[in-house]
Write a structure and sequence with these properties.
alpha+beta, Arc Repressor Mutant, subunit A, three-stranded antiparallel beta sheet, two-stranded antiparallel sheet, 6 helices, 5 strands, 61% helix
C-alpha cells in the first residue's frame, strides 16, 4: 500500500497487477456466485448432507427431512441443474447421489469453518 498526499492508502502497482492477473473473468465470477447461492438454502444443505451418507430416492429424503416429495423434488432439480447431484433410474425409482467428491469437500470445509 502506498500513502497518497491526502492520507488515503492506495494499492501498489504490484498488488494491482497480481489481482488483475489472477482474477477470473466476469462470467466465471458470476457462475461462482450462482454456485455458492445454491448453498444458501438450509433444505438443500440437508439434502446434500443426507446424500453424503447414501444415495436415496425422493421418498426417502422427504421422509427423513419431514417434507413433501414435491418440495424435495424441486430442491433436487436445483441441485441437479448446478451439477451438485446426479441421478440413476432403477425400475420406476430414481436414486440421487452427490455428483462428485468436491461436494463432500465443500460441505466438510464449511462445517469446519463455522465450528472453529
Amino acid at each position: 500500500m502506498q500513502e497518497a498526499q491526502n492520507g488515503y492508502l492506495f494499492v501498489s502497482k504490484e498488488v494491482e497487477k497480481k489481482v488483475s492477473e489472477t482474477m477470473p473473468p466476469e462470467e466465471e465470477m458470476q457462475d461462482l456466485a450462482d454456485f455458492f447461492k445454491v448453498f444458501g438454502d438450509a433444505t438443500r444443505l440437508k439434502i446434500l448432507y443426507a446424500l453424503m451418507c447414501s444415495e436415496m430416492c425422493v421418498l426417502d429424503i422427504a421422509q427423513m427431512l419431514g417434507m413433501t416429495q414435491s418440495a424435495i423434488s424441486h430442491q433436487l432439480r436445483v441441485l441437479k441443474q448446478m451439477d451438485l447431484v446426479k441421478n440413476k433410474r432403477s425400475g420406476k425409482t430414481i436414486f440421487y447421489s452427490l455428483a462428485d467428491s468436491h461436494i463432500v469437500t465443500i460441505l466438510s470445509q464449511g462445517i469446519d469453518h463455522i465450528e472453529e
